[in-house]
Fold this protein.
Amino acid sequence: MPISAKAMQLVCLGAFALPNVEFAKQALENTAAVVLAQKEYRVTTLEENSDFIMVYTDCDRVFTTDQDGAIRHIVLKDENGKELVTKNTNDYNSQYGLHAQAVEAFYHYIYGKYTLELMQIIAAISLAVVLSMICFLINKKYNALMAAVFFITFAFSPYITIFAKNLYWLEFLWFIPVLIGLFCAVYTENKVAKGLSCIAMFFAVLVKSLCGYEYLSTILIAAMSFLAIDMVYAFYKKEKEKVWNVFKITVVLSIAALAGFFVAIIIHGFALGDGNIFEGMLKVYETAGAKNLAGGSGAITMPEHYVVALRDPISMMIEGYFNLSANIVYGISGNWFGIISMLPAVFILYDHEIKERTDIKMVTMYLVFLMATLSWLILAEGHSVIHGFLNSVLWYFGFVQICLYMIIDRVIKFLKGKDIPS
């Protein structure tokens, strides 16, 4: 992604990124060298994708704001040493950039040949630990088959593994709120566990938001999903006291999550407004909010085909997300995702209309996790139109896993001659 607001720290030695917009393309086409903090570096390679252009140089270290200054002060030169126009280059203000500061600090204090690889390993291990804990708690709350499906999906999905060591996304931060919500759902009768969950949720959402607002609606709904499932099931069973108890902790946990988000907005606004919080918060909306909210593209200049796509009905955009470009898990083509996602709905309708019984827990899981994914795709339509491949990971906040589980569980019960639970 583009440069962070607070640091020019990226994920490669001797490299930085510019947004993939027309002025950057034109300038970089003729760039032979770059000047940062009055030091000149030769450009060795340019690597372009739909979001940004990575510029690799002959510098043998990671660029930092302390040593190299802000990205807006970069100077591009051609082969003859003539300066190229870069007046539109600026900091990436759509997020506070806490992760960039953390990576820069890590690199500053633990400098070495393999510092970058060490940071990436830490990020990947952190994700593995968080996802393993989620699978452990699912086994404790539900059953071993569901836990196994979650584990295998997490471990063998290219959409999960591709982000694992990425120092921009820090994927483990996405799933910590989900882990906390699940932990709270497992230990709803434990007052200490509920109190710790609320405190942890506040800080988890605060840190995630300071590292970027991407996918927050999906993350927060997924975090509350297991409690919501318990509440619906208790209501279905007419367990009024349990409904009330789960409802209370869901509300408190949601307030803690929203508080973390709003504190992050205030911190970000304070930084952007140079001490003027309200002016800064307006800038947060103009950069992060207007860019991502439905139909918005913010200050980013988008290619014409994205502009055209934003004029299409939102249903067309969502339909595209049901055809994954990569495997669902290794060995299962993404072309099957539409069928796999619809089969549980067929099972639900068949059970309700023909068998006249409903597994309310599975129905609720299917709908809640579907809603979690669709929330970001719809609310952040501008982001969803541009980042089709990246945003497909949102299906893995529970929806893919529950679809696979319902199919596998149905096959096992059929082979054993068992009926579904009522």
